[in-house]
Amino acid sequence: MAGATVGDDVLGDDPTVIELQNRLASILDKEAGLFVASGTMCNATAIRAQTEPGDEIVTEGHSHIYIYEGGGYAALSGVSVALVPGRMGIMDPSDVAKAIRKGDGSLGHYPNGSMVCVENTSNRGGGTCYSLETLDSIAAVAREKDCTAHIDGARIFNAAVATGQEVARMARDYDSVSICLSKGLGAPVGSVLVGSSEMIARAYRWRKMFGGGMRQAGIIAAAGLHALENHIDRLSEDHARARRLAEALESMSAFTVDLRQVQTNMVYVECEEGGAEDLVLRLSGHGVDTLTIDDSSIRAVTHLHITDEDIDRTIAAFEASQ
Ligand SMILES: Cc1ncc(COP(=O)(O)O)c(C=O)c1O
Q1: Which residues of 119-138 are buried (b: 16+ CB within 10 A; e: fewer)?
Q2: 62 C-alpha vs ligand 1 centroid, how far in Å?
Q3: What is the pLDDT of residues 194-212, one digit of tens each?
Q4: Whose CA is nearest to atom 5 of ligand 1?
Q5: Fewer CB within 10 Å, N- or C-terminus of the chain?
Q6: CA atoms of 278 and 181, how far apart (whole Å)
């Protein structure tokens, strides 16, 4: 990062940012890419560039776009949201079809469903992965109903490593994909939106209006390039560690883990009703950081900096916190 060649990315001439954008566009087999500050900004620019105020987006009921992005779809893009029930976070194509409402033919009653957003892996689903067949079917439903199709691929490389599918193949029928370089890939910051040159040109303008134009951004883009070169294949280690942790926790009487959900680097742990906050505190006393999800569940995540010894320590910390 210290040695990165930089320019001015607001003017579009930072060579390291350009290299990162082109690299991800090429990996995903899309025309162009846009470097942004966060996964949230990536989804926000994707939605703003592909909808009009009064449109409606369609997404899973526990998706990050719906739950964790501050209602940005409404505030920044002026769109409403139609929620689809998921099974472990995974939407069924027929449910997506049912959720798409079109303005035309509704005597002006409905908003115009114009964008379908699929999260892969699904965070609140437990880090679950879409099958290629389901991804293709949802994109086909979107096309049939004249909607754009977007993948919130914050962890798309985890999905690729877990399922053995190429990211480009997963994204083949999708208009846009947001990819996080932080999270499991280990870069400190940054996400990239990929899609057609025309869509990315619109997103570039929205990024500026959202205050996301960064000047010598090559310093952080360099970390993204390093992550792509060195940290994709090793995601399988994170998955194996999450699996080991999940199996150990499921065997403890105080905790329940739905092992079917543990497909990548996340472990959602159920504890006694009302006990989540206290459990997070007790674990933190043992040097283990976890996240409260609701009253009776917490989340643990494995990533670049978590070793086998950390997993041993984490299992011991859960044992001591029962
Ligand atoms: C599925 C998904 N999309 C988007 C994001 C947003 O990323 P950021 O925290 O960089 O805004 C997250 C963050 O956890 C996520 O899990």
Answers
A1: bbbbbbbbbbbbeeebbbbb
A2: 13
A3: 999 999 999 999 999 999 9
A4: 39
A5: C
A6: 32
